[in-house]
Amino acid sequence: MRYNKAFIPTLREVPSEAQAISHQLMLRAGLVRQLSAGVYSFLPLGWRAMQKVMHIVRQEMDAIGGQEFYFPALNPIEIWHQTGRVESMGEVLFHIKNREGLVLAPTHEEVVAFHARQHVKSYKDLPQIWYQIQIKFRNEPRPRFGVLRGRQFTMKDSYSLDDSWEGLDSSYEKHNYAYQRIFSRCGLHFFVVGASSGAMGGSASQEFMVESPAGEDTCAVCASCNYAANIEVARSATEPTARLPESQYLERFPTPGVHTINDLVYGHGIPEERCAKALLYIVDRGPVLILLRGNDELNEAKLQAALGTISVRPAAPEELRAYTGATAGSIGPIGLPVSLPVIADERLRDANELVSGANADGYHYRHIDLMRDCRIDMYADLRTVQEHEPCPQCRSPLRIVRAIEVGHIFKLGTKYSEALGATFLDEHGQERPIVMGSYGIGIERIVAAFIEQNHDERGICWIPSIAPLQVHLIALGLEQSKAVHDAAEQLYQELWTNGVETLYDDRSETAGVKFNDADLIGLPLQLIVSPRNVESGVVEIKERRSGKRHHVASAEVVPVVQRLLKYLSQEPQSVIFP
Length: 578
Known about the structure:
This protein is an alpha+beta fold and 578 residues long.
């Protein structure tokens, strides 16, 4: 590729709209340009990097027996109604307004089950692994951080079809292995966390995460034993509230001006661990009262999982008054004007000598005994884990980190096959639903996550496996020296002839401009042809990441470049948490 004829619109200044490092560098290095909020065009260098990632993905998916499909992005809404996901996806699902009955697919479980219903008839047709690399659409309310959260994006999504749960376990592990291979080959330092299945449903899921300040996921990780989990499901070994030997008589007492747990702690001398914070939430089946200890924060994903509901939200002020007779800060499990289900966090199980609101503004109850004074319908892990809490496995302090989700694998089970009638006949002639798994990788996210982890103050630091090109050939003094021109042209031809993908900077620009652009774009190797080098019969080779320089005889450049690229292609030791 000749720079003089290529479209590589680099930028000197950091774009004001770009906050994430990957977004800044993808714009500055001429990889992408924004068309509208959450919608990006990939320019030639960016698209070459995307193709490199897709090539790796295809190789590893084919290696586990995957067969590549290409499903339509336009879906009939009926199949989404059958699985209930029109409701669960909500506003994220794009509807086609001038063609009623069509949606733009954010994923393809329904389509896979639809085709499986048509053609999979017997257990002899199973197992199957179907995959595609295709554009997806999600109506993100706040697209941000460039391609990390867009409304249109490229996903590798695959689906396993099995005749048993044991078969699903095998398909799931194949994908787990393939994903670790993919992310390692793409140069990512990643970790794997247990996660919530969310609107996808299913019995289990894992996310593949890259730690980054630009990440929109929060994870709890332990460096001592490699425990890691998405904050939506993370646990810690925090101590439960101890049950005291005696429970005093229940007492209602005035608490004017008390609206928070801290008001009780500092204004009335009540230990935080003896405070039971009450929250009112509206779920599918109506209102529920939640009890948490002290200043613990409710984890809505855990609440949703515990109740098996599609939606959860905090009650509005008017709902709070209608169901409890009080405002926030004065509600509790005793004296409710209407009967409500009460769900308490595990940390409060069977606790006594608690303080909570009296469902009257300015009043609380103390000496509450959850076994004596109120009905708890369910105990569940509802709280959000906090920094430095003890790890549930080894009790070392947990770290809470931001992370980019680059892949997610799900054990779906029979949710979609049952909804769409995708069944098979087993060896006994009995009709059974196909057992499914779903597995996704964000292609743009791999590119962006790599840049988040592999850059310096000058620009991107690519590795050969996913770099747009492998070598940046820089010719200095082209217009003044025919010898430089001839040497650079010969080297350019030799590199491509030997399979080395090369960007040749043949522009009439200063050395400073060429070097700055080379570092910004960040190809693994830079080859410098200058009048001094030509006179000495050498070519200077610079390793972009380390800055290490080699002066190589002109006749040896190609084999040295090939050896260096092989060395730089060695897979990094990724951090992989079980």
